[in-house]
Amino acid sequence: MPNPVSFLRRRVLRGCGAAAVAAAAFALPASHAFAQDYPDKPVKIVVGFAPGGTNDILARLIAIKLQDKLKQGFIVDNKPGANSAIGNDFVAKAKPDGYTLLVSSSGGLTTNPILMKSLAYDPAKDFEPIALLGTFPLVVTVPASLPVKNFAELVQFAKKQPDGKLNNGTPTTSFVLVAETIAEKSGIQFTHVLYKGSGPVVTALLGGEIHTGVLDSPAVVNQVKAGKLKALAVTTGKRSSALPDVPTVAESGYPGYDIPIWTALMAPKGTPEPVLAKLRTAVAEILKDKDTVDKMHAVGLDPGDADSAALGRRITSDIARWSAVAKQAGIKPE
Fold this sequence. Notes:
The chain is α/β, with parallel strands linked by helices and about 325 residues long.
């Protein structure tokens, strides 16, 4: 005669297995149905800077393209402050349903953890990478009235200042570290003045309030072409398509210098994979679209891709890279 306890245990386990299979059968179609319906209401894209900088410009371009492709509103929401930490933290704590996304600078994801104490979010644990939207150079920019014509003259100008330093406007921590790599190469010393976005830094340059801005090319290209600002050098190894007459830092006497900046599209951790896959597919197509590519090239951006695994690795490697730069420059978290 079968043991009644063993018999009952087998019946219960078989029942649990059947229930689990049934639950999985219902869950899988529901997940796919959710992805098929997504988005069925407007999607918010948060930018952690004031309007006018690269992240804002790129977010608005991508929002328009996603709206056209997915037939739903994509709305850019600027939440500037604290080197983009306010906006990034808002998205990190948002409901992970695909309706709150983040366009983040590389600084928000890779230098804020190095330079900011008690950062409320963890770039590696709190976000799902969707796509590298684009890379771009920073541009060593000065007011049109500053009496220098090239980078070498800026170095000499800096040495003649009473304290030997230039006031450098910056919207984010990553730009501070890039400026410090320039300082280490050239001997320039900077006093960094923090603003809530590249747009406000451009305003300060136009008003002659600061000496320099090491800024994203999309934020300055129009003012440079209009003769209101002067571009002295770009930080990438090759010249910018938007500013082809501006030499690189490497061409200005510092061979091998090549530091691009990037911008990424992220979602809160836990966003359903089918939703992420739908967004990645849409963004991958957008980044290959000729109109998108032309508009990005016009402001000095090189389109990225939707390789989310590669983006995750890039975040990790850049954190290590900038940690070394901060240590070399003696910059401590604040």
